[in-house]
Amino acid sequence: MDKLYNWMRKYRKYSLLFSDFLLWNLSFYLAFASDLNSFSLLGNKQEFMRSFAVLNISFGVVFGFFKLYDKLWRYADIVDFFYVEMATIIANLVFFAVTYFVDIKHQLRIYVLLMLISSFFMFIFRLIYRVNKILERKNPTNCPKKRLLIVGAGESAVSVMREISKSRDNEYKPICMVDDDKAKIGRRVSRVKVVGTTNEIPKMCEKYDIELILFAISSIDSAGRKRILDICSKVNLEVRIIPNIYDLVTANISVTSKIRKVEVEDLLGREPIVLDTKQCREYVAEQTVLVTGGGGSIGGELCRQIGNLGPKKLIIFDIYENNAYKIQQELRRNHGEKLNFEVQIGSIRDNEKLENLFAEKKIDVIFHAAAHKHVPLMETNPEEAVKNNIFGTLNLVRVADKYRVKKFVQISTDKAVNPTNVMGATKRICEMIIQSVNDISETEYVAVRFGNVLGSNGSVIPLFKEQIKNGGPVTVTHSEIIRYFMTIPEAVSLVLTAGGIAQGGEIFVLDMGEPVKIKDLAENLIRLSGFVPNEDIKIEYTGLRPGEKLYEELLLDEEGVRKTQNKKIYIGKPIEFNREKFEEDLSLLYKFSKKNDKQKIEKQLREMVPNFRVRAGKHKGLLPKQHSFLR
Residue 288 and which of 226, 252, 440, 551 are 20 to 30 A apart at CA? Predict the structure, then answer.
């Protein structure tokens, strides 16, 4: 049977032709028998058979002329049904004309009955075929459907409904819809009723035994999305989201193929940061741009966005060749020969490598993203954090000054504010280096400070997702721990925008919205994945890690802020410090790091960063003042 079914699918046009052949002959037989008032052809067989050949030639030629067998009847619309009826009527008229001219005359009643019966059969047969295909798509074998509540009854929802009705293999069964437009409540979209507002989502999920929620509002601000997703999170059902409907139309792809799970970005409740492409292009276009740490999460995104700004040349600098190779291949796929770029494998700790690179390449702009960033690892390896983050940056700063680089953009972190860990303290010292050297250099040095980056290497979010996927537990260090979040593209757009605004010496900070409690974030991710926190997926509190604090800050107490032309970006007021003492402290810290003396390193970090709260006590030793370590 399966072979027969597959053969019929492959040669469906011939199957349809054979079915029509049977139907129009059956129609003629019924019309002929009706005229005789008998189903027996005794005494009239010769007359019937003479007409049989004419009938099949007439119908076959006319149906072929109308190309009825080139159509996909499972997608037939009212126009297609009109054409089949028109073809049937014309075929009957041709049959009448031919039999009249070849002197095969029948009662007029037979011709009328033939037209009525054949028209009815052609219409009903195709209607049944069309309806059967719709039912097949709605109820495919071995494909259980999830009972679906759709949030939104606008254009996006209509597109979803249309895709679901067409797709045989979709996994959704729309049950009801909700929308905050009260004029839509009680009405139907493609036979699915709008039953209430978004505030009634929990009630409707229980009433209609919903298994999955689909968020189908593409034109909504971030705060509105967060409000609705917070309501959805109360019902412990999986929530999925469709992307922007304009993106779907321009990409020429199906709606259902791009339905995705809820991401943390959807829960932040603020508008995304938008890159000022024009301003960034002014200082990046036709320039040689170096990105250190260019294979990392932030550095890689910098390379992607810079690649769209028309640089003269892009140089990707990274010590880890696998990441560098990955971004190299991606840029080649996306830009081909249009983007002039190269990959340099090396470390910012290798001063000779940097000297050779800068002497050869004549670099105009630097984005410095290379750093050791993992807080707990740097607590146990402070000498490596100091060597890489501080003195690697210092190497880069000095060669940038020597070779007259136009702009130097340092990637900093909110952990540099009142640091409680070695990584944050090293980043604060990098900011101080930037501000100090800017005063004595022609290069414009600027630092950009932002919070946790979603999806970056070391981010907690991928860990949460993996833990949920594996059935838990989800580990949170403390029930009260709070963080600011932004996406990688947002962070990079801030870095690029800051470079355009920079005049030298600034520390830029971002208006990142409201801080997020990590415990709430974990619970929402669990709920929106379709599980119950602490029932299906446990949350375990592991205690603060070494160097970790409950909340992050974006400004020091001494720093005031002033606005920029970008309402999301602020400039922190530079903190005054003794430059000569800072140089002496750097020199001393360098000696301790070379000896890998962890205890003295921590003491010296606290000496240099008074806000750094560590277990070690103060260190009082300084180098002679005449030693200038910055230049």
Answer: 440
d(CA 363, CA 383): 30
Average pLDDT over residues 64-83: 70
Q: What is the dihedral of CA 560, 563, 564, 566, to 10 degrees?
A: 120
Say which of 387, 407, 415, 600 is annotated catalytic: 415
**Mean pLDDT over all residues of the chain?**
80
Task: Tell me the chain's radius of gyration from C-alpha atoms.
Answer: 36
Tokens of 328: 């190299």
Confidence of residue 359 (pLDDT cuts 50, 70, 90): very high
Which residue's entry shows tokens 């990098």? 430
For the chain, what's the residue count? Answer: 631
- Paired strand residues for 425: none
Which carries the bigger pLDDT value, residue 599 or residue 3? 599
Is 415 one of the catalytic residues?
A: yes
How many whole angstroms from its chain centre is CA 456? Answer: 15
The 3-state secondary structure of 385-416, one letter per residue: HHHHHHHHHHHHHHHHHHCCCCEEEEEEEHHH
What tokens does 617 get? 């006590």
CA 410, 494, 578, 597 dihedral sign is negative
Please give the helix or strand (H or E) that residue 563 lies within, else none: strand 561-563
List domains and CATH numbers for the chain. 2-138 (no CATH), 146-262 (3.40.50.720), 277-454+485-512+553-608 (3.40.50.720)
Closest Cα to residue 423, out of 455, 385, 449, 457? 385
User: DSSP H helical segments within 308-350, as ranges?
Assistant: 321-335
Share of the chain above pLDDT 70, in %: 78
Q: Contact, 231 vs 198, CB < 8 A?
A: yes
Residue with more model confidence, 514 or 586: 586
CB atoms within 10 A of CB 112: 13
CB contact at 8 A, 378 and 396? no
